[in-house]
Design brief:
two-stranded parallel ribbon, single chain, six-stranded antiparallel sheet
Length: about 160
């Protein structure tokens, strides 16, 4: 699981249509789930009520789908980097699905595929399909087409 480094945006764009790799495993904890519940106001019992969730359909608390989605920056950071950028900005999502619940204590990791790269001022817009795998599960916890705007560093930025 080596970090794939691209020297610049053109080198990154040339990787269109390829799988960029996999990130490190990350354990989803009840503390993360509780903090996310507090941040979003979503305290549904399947996430935060340990006793009731243990008797529920998943046998334990499960992460919010949006928590799993929000872990993507953490899960992708060890997959690839593009050098020479001023910034990368989340531009949106094309498609998001949550095929499988992420039960507390599960380990997840991301795989990333560079689907599309287009010129868009002031840089390039990239669509990266991210699949959040659950260790030992047949189906992923999340599949999302993330859209990012990558802005190259200008000579004046050093």
């Amino acid at each position: 699981m080596a970090l794939r480094t691209f020297a610049n945006l053109d080198e990154f764009a040339a990787a269109k249509g390829t799988h960029l790799g996999y990130g490190e495993w990350h354990e989803v904890t009840q503390e993360e789930i509780n903090l996310f519940a507090d941040a979003t106001g979503d305290h549904q019992w399947i996430h935060v009520d340990l006793e009731k969730a243990a008797k529920g359909p998943f046998g334990a608390p499960v992460a919010h789908g949006y928590l799993t989605l929000s872990l993507i920056p953490l899960l992708v950071r060890d997959i690839y980097q593009v050098q020479g950028l001023s910034m990368g900005v989340n531009y949106g999502l094309n498609k998001v699905r949550f095929p499988n619940p992420v039960v507390v204590g599960s380990r997840v990791r991301a795989g990333a595929e560079l689907v599309e790269v287009t010129d868009l001022p002031p840089g390039k817009q990239a669509v990266v399909k991210v699949t959040v795998e659950i260790e030992g599960a047949a189906k992923p916890g999340c599949v999302a087409e993330t859209v990012v705007l990558l802005v190259p560093r200008q000579a004046s930025e050093g």
